[in-house]
UniProtKB/TrEMBL annotation:
Stretches assigned to the CBS domain: 318-373
Gene3D superfamilies, A to Z: CBS-domain
GO BP field: proteolysis
GO cellular component, one term: plasma membrane
UniProtKB keywords: CBS domain, Cell membrane, Hydrolase, Membrane, Metal-binding, Metalloprotease, Protease, Repeat, Transmembrane, Transmembrane helix, Zinc
Keyword Protease: yes
Record-linked PANTHER family: MEMBRANE-ASSOCIATED ZINC METALLOPROTEASE M50B (PTHR39188), STAGE IV SPORULATION PROTEIN FB (PTHR39188:SF3)
Protein name: Zinc metalloprotease
Family named by the database record: Belongs to the peptidase M50B family.
Membrane-protein topology: Multi-pass membrane protein
Amino acid sequence: MFSNAFKVATLQGFDIKIDPSWALIAALITWSLSTQFFPSVYPNAEPSVYLTLALLAMMGFFASLILHELSHSVVARWYGVEIKGITLFIFGGVAELGSEPKTAASEFWIAIAGPLMSFALAFGFWVLAQVGGALLPDSALNHAIEYLALVNFVLAVFNLIPAFPLDGGRIFRAYLWNQNRDLLEATKIATRVSSYLAYALIFLGVVGLFSGNPVASLWKVLIGMFVLAAAKGTYAHQLQKAAFKGKTVANLMTRGVVSVDPGMNLANLVDQVMLPERKTFIPVIKDKILLGYADTELLTHTNREEWPTTKVGDVCVMSDESNTIGVDTSVVKLLEKISRTNKRKYLVADGRQLLGVITLTDLMSYMALLQDVRLMGNETKQG
């Protein structure tokens, strides 16, 4: 999801990563706090004081975000849900799930953990601000603490809005899932509500662009678009899981595929195999032993003038666990692997014996066909 994110720390066994887009929101928060918020609540101070307070408050806010996401991650691990890491990005933070909760109860507790942590932080900072205000009433630092109390409270309330990918969207889906025992139907309803809220937010943002405060209005539009995309993506993911439930690679792979000998040169690979067969992913086999594969990406790494003298075996991608899967692998697991690695084509083998190939295109074609058949079935019922 965040291919450019880089790791900065590890907490409780979870990698903490930062996406480059985070720098924009960090700079924007620091600027707005140092030029607007702190001058309004603590007037007549030096600009350096405002900047220092803003930097401290910004770091405190993102530390709070990490704790919010860490609470999701700890509860998820307790329920046996894989967490790939915690990433800070332009819209806040996210605990990236490597697998889905198995029950409505687990989804609820994983989702509610974040807002509960934020409410606890808000209360803790509020108490600290009250004590600090009593002991040091003129302390500039106390205003930063008050800000952290406020922002954590707002973060908790905002995340309870029933819209994906916010925690409230997952809580709402958990409620629906518990009521009707149908995860796909619960997801359909929850993402529909999310879409309505996203459209409303976008509308308010567009209106605001023409009636004042363009910065806040632009953020409403951007957040609305983000929520809309996340809602559609969540439902599409559940549709995929429902379509492929119980299916293994054996059900959908292509058998009897064309393969080539490692001694073939690249020019013949293109002219005699890829173009006539209209295939871009070709297994490489020697004496019935699977060696690897050749594809069009491989060709781009070799000068065209060298194709006639370059053997496939010298440049092919060797078969390993990153590109080769077993025939009994579930399609849902394969989709998770595709999402995690962005690799879309796989060899299917039993040991070193090739059984077939399977690609993301194969899976999407099956999905499209299944949807067409269901639509035809609905038309037949209506007729």
